[in-house]
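User: Okay, second chain of the day. Same drill as before: sequence in, structure tokens out.
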Amino acid sequence: MNEKLEKEEILKEEKIGFLKSKLNLMQGILYLTPNRLVLDAHKTGVGGFGILGALLKRKVEKKSFGFSLDFKDIKKIAQGKHGVQKNVLEITDNQNKTFRIMVKNYQEWENELNQKL
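Assistant: Same drill. Structure tokens below.
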């Protein structure tokens, strides 16, 4: 978690799957604070290969992906699908960029976000 987020109150936190593309699923954590929605995701590294594998894994997992969106920058919330999984939270920002996040309970996240928007 980044330092800036540590100073904020976290209202909701969940381990999620971030659908960066149709074939690229990253593990991460989705945070809801009083002012914004924050996703911290990273590639999962390769295992094995002894010391070299451990070094490669650390380097790959160090790079962070995701976003930090103030509620005023969220244009739309929708429920999406990924295969048979229907708990996909789709967040579209004011620049029409859509983030797809696999959550445990879509309805809970939608309710929480609609209260903030």
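The helical segments are 3-6, 50-62, 106-116.

User: Thanks, on to the next one.
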